[in-house]
């Protein structure tokens, strides 16, 4: 099992711990991930807003990098997944657009063929690797750990581009949490948006959204929130203190990357998963489950 | 005999409560049929709106198991199979004020719709004699958006509206605005774009609920995106615009984001300085590296190709 790894900008910057955890987990599971040489920012929906042809072309280039290696693309960021899949759908379904973009890529000596798929680490674990196989690798079941499963918008919606599961009643993340020995709480805000993409222009609304997710996870008895998206993790963790001013809550709610949760269940230490120094909301309360 | 139960969120004279009704199952019936059955046989006080029963008028939108849809289009068989239960929750669509039971107030929404001038400002070359002809290709650019039936489904689970309705318009308003911006016969695209820009255009959080809810398969989030492009090209700018431009600059400069300069370019020096303590916390936890201000990122392998693509895109747009 080998994939072309597209980490996305955030894994190089604010969420380096997710890079660390993803690489470690993939190694332990025997999933080979080879970082695509020369990948660029997916546009994160922002560049798409002001220059859609540029992001369609640069994402065609990103996918072409994987095609050259003969690999499908594996991402860990919901928004990267959506942006790349949106581009792929547009290119695969519209011959005229593909031709136009290929003329542009041709200037740089590249070509988009449409031979590589774009998938998310969570989907690979469910559909390709299999939860039974994952369960067999668990050396430290996270017994008693109550987890608020938080999907993040772009792994579910729009269904037309994503469509891995029913976007109203998803179960993939809860199934994965269960396979690790922990208990998903059927979180009431699992379908909500954290607001990350508008944190600058809609700051006050976004603090309301972020604060509500964190506070309700606490009210519903979660020991931590787990998400398959590093942007959501960053939003819920980095802005947690500030969001408390809008939606009050006591203490910290640990916000954990999906890769970190898997790593803990596979026997990694919190320090190895970057949990001891790279989180703003303390994760120390989780040590009692390890 | 198989039975179906509706748990209906009711509201009357300031009192909100859930009332359950059970009735005999019939194959191939709609959610609206069930509501009418309850009104006809169990409780004549249950209040809802419906008219065409053909997914054309947009009157009967309700929230079914948490998701807005047209009552006349949603099949009981499909809902029970999808959710694995013969018990169905029916509520008024979200982000509207409720008048009674499942009936919501459209009065204020119509005023918001008027803000973007959802009508055509016809180019002067068109006359009553020549008409307002356009090519099939131009017609295709906006015709999808004329399918909007103002059912409100796109607004129901819009996360931005749920957080604050005052500084953001309902998604269908932006769809209506973009319909006229994209119409080659309209002389004044900015008459629709500027009010949209001034009323929350960049506050959309990209939750994508509008796209998944529209019974006509329209894409309000894409309309918002196009309006942002038009506004940006016209020189309208705010934090959202600056944020997007900073992304684009980084993409063409090194291929990847520089989170430190991104913040400065978006917030400006003054606002960034106000965040000094917060920035220190982020630095302490390794979330940002202020040295990136002076030591630029190393460009990705193949950055020349990326820049060539950027230039070719510019050429293609001319």
Name the descriptors.
heterodimer, A: 290 residues, alpha/beta, Glutathione S-transferase Yfyf (Class Pi), Chain A, domain 2, 4-stranded parallel sheet, 46% helix, globular, B: 318 residues, Fumarate Reductase Iron-sulfur Protein, Chain B, domain 2
Distance between the termini of chain B: 67 Å
CATH level-1 class of the largest domain in chain B? Mainly Alpha
Number of extended strands of chain B: 7
CATH architecture grouping of the largest domain in chain B: Orthogonal Bundle
Please render the helix and strand layout as text.
The complex is a heterodimer of chains A (290) and B (318).
Chain A lengths: L1 E5 L2 H4 L3 H14 L2 E4 L10 H5 L1 H18 L3 E3 L2 H16 L1 H12 L11 E3 H9 L1 H7 L8 E4 L22 H8 L3 E2 L18 H17 L4 E4 L2 H9 L1 H5 L10 E3 H8 L25
Parallel strand pairs in A: 1-2, 1-3, 3-4, 5-6, 5-7, 7-8
Helix pairs in contact in A: 2-13, 4-5, 4-6, 5-6, 7-8
Chain B lengths: L2 E10 L2 E10 L6 H11 L19 E4 L2 E4 L5 H8 L3 E5 L6 E3 L2 E2 L2 H8 L21 H8 L9 H4 L2 H5 L7 H11 L8 H9 L10 H5 L6 H14 L5 H15 L5 H16 L1 H9 L18 H15 L1
Parallel strand pairs in B: 1-5
Antiparallel strand pairs in B: 1-2, 3-4, 3-5, 6-7
Please characterize this protein's 3D structure.
The complex is a heterodimer of chains A (290) and B (318). Chain A folds into 2 domains: 2-120, Glutathione S-transferase Yfyf (Class Pi), Chain A, domain 2, CATH 1.20.1050.140; 131-281, 3-Layer(aba) Sandwich (Rossmann fold), CATH 3.40.50. In chain A, 46% of the residues lie in helices and 10% in strands. Chain A starts with a strand and ends in a 25-residue tail after the last helix. By secondary structure, chain A is α/β, with parallel strands linked by helices. A 4-stranded parallel sheet of chain A has the order 2-1-3-4, with helices on both faces. In chain A, strands 6-5-7-8 form a 4-stranded parallel sheet, sandwiched between helices. In chain A, strand 5, helix 9 (172-179) and strand 6 (183-184) form a beta-alpha-beta unit. The model of chain A has no long low-confidence stretch (mean pLDDT 97). Chain B is α+β, with helices and mostly antiparallel strands and 318 residues long. Chain B is 43% helix and 12% strand. Chain B contains 14 helices and 7 strands. Chain B has helices at residues 31-41, 76-83, 107-114, 136-143, 153-156, 159-163, 171-181, 190-198, 209-213, 220-233, 239-253, 259-274, 276-284, 303-317, and strands spanning 3-12, 15-24, 61-64, 67-70, 87-91, 98-100, 103-104. In chain B, the strands form 2 sheets. A 5-stranded mixed sheet of chain B has the order 2-1-5-3-4. A two-stranded antiparallel ribbon of chain B has the order 6-7. In chain B, helix 7 packs antiparallel against helix 8, helix 7 crosses helix 10 and helix 11 (239-253) runs antiparallel to helix 12 (259-274). The longest helix of chain B is centred in the last third of the chain and has 16 residues, at 259-274. Classes of the chains: A alpha/beta (290), B alpha+beta (318).
